[in-house]
Amino acid sequence: MNTNGNVVAAQDAFAEKSERDLINAVQQGDRKAYQTLYQTYIGQVYALCYRLTSDRSLAEDAAQEVFIQLWRKIGNFKGDSKFSTWLHTVTSNITISYIRKQRGWWQRMFNIEDSEAMHHSAEQSTDLSELEGYIARLPERARIVFVLHAIEGYRHEDIANMMDMAVGSSKAQFHRAKQLLKEWMGYE
Prior knowledge:
Blueprint: H1 3-27, H2 31-53, H3 56-73, H4 83-102, H5 105-110, H6 128-137, H7 140-151, H8 156-163, H9 167-184
Helix pairs in contact: 1-2, 2-3, 2-4, 3-4, 7-9, 8-9
């Protein structure tokens, strides 16, 4: 008998039950439970917001907006999927919407050449911090599609729905992002 496997399964079941109880408490308006939920997920939410915005200030603001909306919309979570999966989708949608509201979406999308990052030379090294820097340099729509598809695992159909674009546009933006990253990393 493998007691280690049983212990792990019991811990997973307890964690799932505890999370369900926590979410139920938040859905009932329990502010302490909400604070616990916030502390549990703020790191993951901020990380996704940052990957999508490539701007610390915008990511902080977007993450806060996610949790404001989460308080209002937690009742929409029915438990059909894992809470973290649902929160990931909510975070992506809210952050994309937030980006559109906070900056001139179209102006920023076409004026990335003005960014200081474009004037830095790309080196051949591909460590994680450099890769994140290259991703941050991508044009906004290409960056969002790249992050959602390549890093977060969304299908192009889902991205197209979230961003109100055609599936072909999502695929084209992803291809554009890959080409730019290859170029900047010296692979072309």
